[in-house]
Amino acid sequence: MAAISGATTKELMQFAGHSDLHVAMRYQEAVHDRKKELAQRMTNLATAVAPPHGT
Q: CA–CA separation, 55 vs 53, rounded Å?
């Protein structure tokens, strides 16, 4: 649930008590739909700060 809520890898490690980065990464990889959401957020940011085309 922490990964779905947007926790970073470090936060997942602290929350679950993992000392191994690879274990925490497994949890983040399980959240496939999050990648789509992050891509959309980055697109929104890029279009919000990009100057109008042709200026």
A: 6
Query: Model confidence over 11-37: pLDDT tens digits?
Result: 888 888 878 888 777 766 666 667 778
Which residues make Cβ contacts (< 8 Å) with residue 13, sequence separation at least 6? Answer: 19, 21, 23, 24
Question: Across the chain, which distance is largest between two alpha carbons, in Å?
Answer: 51
Residue 2: CB partners within 8 Å, gap ≥ 6? 11, 12, 15, 16, 27
Extents of the domains making up the chain: 9-48
